[in-house]
Specification:
It is built from 10 helices and 17 strands. By secondary structure, it is α/β, with parallel strands linked by helices. Helix 8 packs antiparallel against helix 9. It comes from Portunus trituberculatus (Swimming crab). GO terms for molecular function: histone methyltransferase activity; protein-arginine N-methyltransferase activity.
Length: about 375
């Protein structure tokens, strides 16, 4: 049987230039950049999106997300906490539904109708799971891009787990906002309704561990093979510092109180607002430590006040933290680190992010670092 042969309803697919729905735990693209050289930006975007959505057909990826109990329980609790006011007898759309678990939470909470949208082939399994759980009379699965699906009615609630690494990686949020502007009734609810990205100073112990280990490896080859390979030691360490890392940072390795980089009201924010996010910052060290990184994490809030946090202070999540390595600098109590952090969507691949950091420690020289958050970002280094 084909993927759409009587298995899922396939939404109409008119031409659209809007960004497509996406998620977080996969590489945002595989081969999309080659198409830019061959066929221009339109073909490149299609290639990037096709590869992206194909990655979300992997059932193991959905296990990773559902197995994150902080994430999954937060959505379930938010839905049930507000079931009488927001969900019961209401029309809901689930953008990027994956296996359909959030749609089924809404059905359990008494939703009158749920439209579950996903562009990947996981929609086939979502429909089967929904039928197996007895919710096919409430939930309709639509396999298609969020910008191209036509719903038969306006909705009261939008549910979506759109957050990526560092909140914005994979650029799914514009797709959710497209659905909001087209299909959400006036006064309708967004789950979540607010998102905040935080940053703080860090001393990531695993950076030091890697630097020492990789340096010693290249130097030690002289004793093993009687060949001097030490020239690569500095290059290996420098390369590691040029890469964005996705890794949990221990609470004790956060060296300052956080500051917010962006505070998004998801009922009003626009896709244009997301293309460039820039914020000056001033952070003060707590104690005498070795600064070697900037640490970023996010929180989201649901109607009713329930918060889902990826902070180092809280239980680990599959999003982990995002770490920008810096040259190591000693800090004293209340040493001031000030500068500006700018996040922009990459022009060659709309799912990637460019992260530009300018900073100064105390009265030292200004330093500029430019990172790209792409398929090469390192996760789970140790």
């Amino acid at each position: 049987m084909s993927e759409t042969d009587g298995v899922v309803e396939v939404a109409p697919v008119p031409v659209s230039e809007a960004a497509q729905p996406q998620t977080k735990k996969r590489r945002a693209s595989e081969n999309g950049l080659h198409a830019l050289q061959k066929n221009g930006s339109m073909e490149k975007d299609k290639n990037v999106d096709d590869s992206y959505f194909a990655s979300y057909s992997d059932i193991e990826l959905h296990r990773t997300m559902i197995e994150d109990s902080v994430r999954t329980n937060a959505y379930q609790q938010a839905i049930f906490q507000n079931m009488e006011e927001h969900i019961r007898n209401k029309v809901v759309v689930d953008v990027g539904c994956g296996t359909g678990i959030l749609s089924m939470f809404c059905a359990q909470a008494g939703a009158k109708k749920v439209y579950a949208i996903d562009a990947s082939k996981i929609a086939v399994h979502a429909k089967q799971l929904i039928e197996a759980n007895g919710y096919s009379n409430i939930i309709t699965v639509l396999q298609g891009k969020a910008e191209e699906v036509e719903l038969p009615e306006k909705v009261d609630v939008i549910v979506s787990e759109w957050m990526g690494y560092m909140l914005l990686y994979e650029t799914m949020l514009p797709s959710v906002l497209y659905v909001r502007d087209k299909w959400l009734k006036p006064g309708g609810k967004m789950y979540p309704e607010r998102a905040v990205l935080h940053m703080a100073l860090g001393e990531a112990q695993w950076i030091t561990k890697y630097e020492e280990g990789t340096y010693d490896f290249w130097v030690s080859l002289n004793h093993v093979y009687n060949l001097d390979m030490s020239l690569l030691a500095d290059h290996a360490v420098a390369r590691y510092k040029d890469v964005v890392h996705v890794h949990m940072v221990a609470q004790e390795d956060v060296l300052s109180f956080p500051t917010s980089i962006c505070d998004l009201d998801l009922t009003t924010i626009t896709p244009e607002d997301l293309r460039t996010i820039s914020r000056p910052f001033s952070l003060y060290s707590m104690g005498s430590r070795q600064l070697n990184s900037i640490v970023l994490w996010f929180d989201v809030w649901f109607p009713g006040g329930l918060k889902l946090s990826t902070s180092p202070d809280n239980e680990d999540t599959h999003w982990q933290n995002t770490v920008l390595p810096l040259a190591t600098v000693p800090l004293q109590q209340d040493t001031k680190v000030e500068g500006e952090l700018t996040i922009t969507q990459d022009l060659t691949n709309h799912r990637f992010l460019n992260v530009d950091l300018t900073y100064r420690v105390d009265k030292g020289e200004e330093v500029t670092r430019c990172f790209k958050m792409d398929d090469n970002c390192n996760d789970n280094d140790f």
